[in-house]
UniProtKB/TrEMBL annotation:
Keywords: ATP-binding, Coiled coil, Cytoplasm, Cytoskeleton, Microtubule, Motor protein, Nucleotide-binding. InterPro entries: Kinesin-like_fam (IPR027640), Kinesin_motor_CS (IPR019821), Kinesin_motor_dom (IPR001752), Kinesin_motor_dom_sf (IPR036961), P-loop_NTPase (IPR027417). Residues 352-379, 504-538 form a coiled coil. It comes from the Eukaryota. Pfam families: Kinesin. This is Kinesin-like protein. Residues 691-702 have a biased composition (Polar residues). Belongs to the TRAFAC class myosin-kinesin ATPase superfamily. Kinesin family. It is found in: Cytoplasm, Cytoskeleton. PANTHER family: CENTROMERE PROTEIN E, KINESIN-LIKE PROTEIN KIF19 ISOFORM X1. Residues 665-674 have a biased composition (Gly residues). Residues 467-492, 660-722 are annotated as: Disordered. Transmembrane segments: none annotated.
Amino acid sequence: MTQSILNPDKFHSSGRSVSEEKLMVAVRVRPLRGDEGPRIVHVVSDKMLVLEEEADVRRDVLRQRRVNDKHYVYDRVFGEDSTQEDVYEVICAPLVGDTLNGIAGAIFAYGATGAGKTHTMSGLMSRALNHLFTSISESDDTDSFDVKLSYIEIYNENIRDLLNPGAGPLELRDEGGSGPPVVAGLSEVRALDASHVAELLARGDRSRTAEPTYANQHSSRGHALLSVSVSKTVSNGIQRGRLFLIDLAGSERAGLRARRLEGAHINRSLLALGNCIMALSGGARYVNYRDSKLTRLLREVLGGRCRTAMVAHVSPAATHRDTTRSTLHYAQRASAITNKVERELIETPMHLSQYRNVIHELRDEIARLKTKMKDDRSKSRDEQLKINEVLSKEECEEKSAHLKSLRESIVSTFKQQMRLRRRLMELDSHLLGLALDAERQHAAISHWEARFNRLYKPISFTGSRLSTQQSYRGGTGASSTASGGSGSERAEAEVAVEQAWAELAAVEREQETARAERLRIERQLEQVRLRGAQLEQELPAHIENGPEREVLSLVCRVHELEADKLALQGERAARAHELRRRDLALQRRDAQRRLTDEIITRQRRALEEYGIGVQQDLAQLYELYQQEIHASTYTDSNDYYTPYRLPPISLSMSELAWSESSSGSGRGSSSGSGGDRRLPQLAPTPRPRTRYSQASATTLKRYSSDDSLVITAPRASDRAAP
Ligand SMILES: Nc1ncnc2c1ncn2[C@@H]1O[C@H](COP(=O)(O)OP(=O)(O)OP(=O)(O)O)[C@@H](O)[C@H]1O
């Protein structure tokens, strides 16, 4: 029977938020089938197994065997008679506990085709989800959990949505930074209960690609990744735990012709996975996850922030000796991988005014409760005694029980109010975030419209978004040259705009849902507040004894502490908000600066190319500008933004310019005087055109972080005749 898993410390002794942990590696040996020949894998204990290697027939068989047989030790070994429940309890149950406590966990099944991966994973998936829902339903705050599922298959390097199999292949997109890539357009289904989940899983499993192989009549031909996300509303944000259950496709020997492509894809991604395992276990500083979609997606699972378990599967039969050896070897290497396990808390970015409102309401409530206590105190002591004398013992008990239930109702109403208020604040910030997302999509659309000169042109569509997409496909009749951009750019624009519209539509749908939810919560909150007010009305008539008054003052104190806590959180959120705002402003400035740099460089290049002299004051400004940019080369410590910089006025540049001019080939010497003063030269001016291009490109490249910005000189034939 699975244990209760809502206690965060039950499964992790360390209270630290980040802990370095080794991958847990288990091996499961599936039962031997009648047609498979002799058994060569022997489970010695729950941590060790032995693989019999082929005996050298020229020598004493028994002795040789003893020398060749290889012992393998893992965190856990499951023998042929192990049950699904055994594997679940040891490998998966602790990770389900983690998920509920905001920690990401992952289990992946590894092994050759027919070794038992799908058998194990289907058992784990159904048990994990049942366990999850049972634990949530047993918790005090069932309503604060939100469970979502997504289920994908990587088949032939295409990502398929198993919960929405009709949709086309999905794109895997890097979001920048070091975060994991996202699968664009993937459906995330809110799971209501265990039976709903069972239905979703069955639907997903039906959509998986399966075919017979030499070792398995029902072989999964794609990697399946089930992701369960459990969000829980906590005082300072949303705690999010995730559980990834991954059933990898099994490697197989080169098979039927028809399966060659899929086999190649499977083997390639497994090879990439193997390489990652080798690199990570060897402590490599650079791990290449980019070789396959599988490894890109598993980045969090291997070497990331997940608590990960690998269940390697082997057949005990002699016919599979080579694949078994290879699986056991990788499993052993994997046990050296370390992950940095971390609790994930998405702090709710709330607007300061939201905090102020809630704090204000709380303080009102405290004041009301305190007044009631004061009123009550005003009753004379004699009066109280008289009342008590008149009441019988039963009546006293009844009254005290009533008071107790009244007090509990007040506390529970207060808790409900706080929960609903927080939910409202969350929804408000969610709506703010969605507005930002929508802005981002609009910006992407504007970008492409500007790229194709459509930003300030009336687009011939009557409120239809599709017609805007059409315009990139040439639907508006504008020629490719008129609107600019090559064919491939056009295709890129088409995809980008289509995606931006699709995402915008999804954001708008989400906004509608969030607004409806907000309205519902607002109504609920109003009802709870009314109920609270009614309960408070009942209080003055009843409170006349010390302990009850004490309890009431405690309730007040809790309210006060809650208000203080919110005030502190509000201040912190305001600071974080300000930092984010400044960050965004800096990013915008940086983008503007890059554009300005490019424009200035191009203009300077043109002036230099055509031998146009500039006014002295402009030349001085250019120099100042260069010095400024040059200075920023040494002060800019932000690695993410390496802005394109103008070549600084450096000794080497002057030397280059000098050597060119002294050899008589330079046109842009800085030795010009007065109004004819030339700009500091950007690059040497070679006579043969080919040398020129190479030299300037190389020189500029030294300063440019982006090759696309390297400017090449116009061809001599392009220049106007004097
Ligand atoms: N531990 C087990 N107990 C009983 N039967 C098992 C066990 N493991 C595997 N099997 C059976 O062996 C067969 C192959 O197993 P399974 O489909 O899980 O292999 P697989 O590793 O997922 O293969 P593939 O990579 O080709 O999909 C199935 O019929 C399955 O029911």
